[in-house]
Sequence to fold (213 residues):
Amino acid sequence: MDGDILNLPAVLDLCRRYNALLMVDEAHSLGVLGASGRGIEEHWGQSGRIPVLMGTLSKTIPAMGGYVTGERDLIAYLRHNARGFVFSAAMTPPVAAAALAAFDLLEREGSQRRARLAANVERFSRGLRNAGFDLGPTQTPVIPVMLGDSTRALAMAACCQARGLLILPVLPPAVPEGTARLRVNVTAAHTSADVDLAVDIISACGRDLGLPT
Ligand SMILES: Cc1ncc(COP(=O)(O)O)c(C=O)c1O
Fold:
C-alpha cells in the first residue's frame, strides 16, 4: 500500500532467529524489481532464499490467477488442500496462454519496459511532489497520494473520475486510520502525455478541494 520495498535480508534474519517459515506475496514486484525483473529475491541478490513465494497473474502478467512456489512436499500439500485449488475449475487455456506470452515478453523486452516504467514513475512523482503532494515512502510504481482523511480521499477520487482519470481511493481498514490515499499505479504502457495529464487532473482536483494543505 505504501510502495516501499521489503527489507528481505532483515526479514530472513528474523526468520532464522525465530525458526519461522517465510512466505512472501510479490504481487507488485514480479517483472518490476530485480535486474531481470525476477522480483524481490533478485532485487536483494538472495535468489532461492524465500521458502514460499507466491504471486498473482493479474498485474505485471495481465492474465488471471496466481502461483505458489516452494518445496515439492508443500506444493503437493497445497494441491490437495488449498481451497481455491481444490474447489475451482482449472485455469482456462486462453488465460494460461496469455500468462505464458506475458512471461515471454518479460524475458524479451523486460529491460526496455522497466526503463520506460522508471521514467514514467519519475515523471509522475516529480509532477505531484512539485504540486505539493505527499507520496509517502514509495520506492516503486505503486504510488500513494496521501490524503489522510477518508472523505477527502473519496472526494479526490470522485473529482478525478469526473475529469476522466480512473483512480481509486484506499481507505481504512485496508490502510491505517488517518492514512487514506489515492493508490496510483503508473505503468510502462503510459505515454509521457498520459502521465502529464494525470498529474494535471490530480493537481486541479487538489486545487478545487483546497489540497494539499
Ligand atoms: C499484494 C497483493 N496480493 C494479491 C492481490 C490480489 O491479486 P488477485 O487479484 O490476482 O487475486 C493484490 C491486489 O491488489 C495485492 O496487492
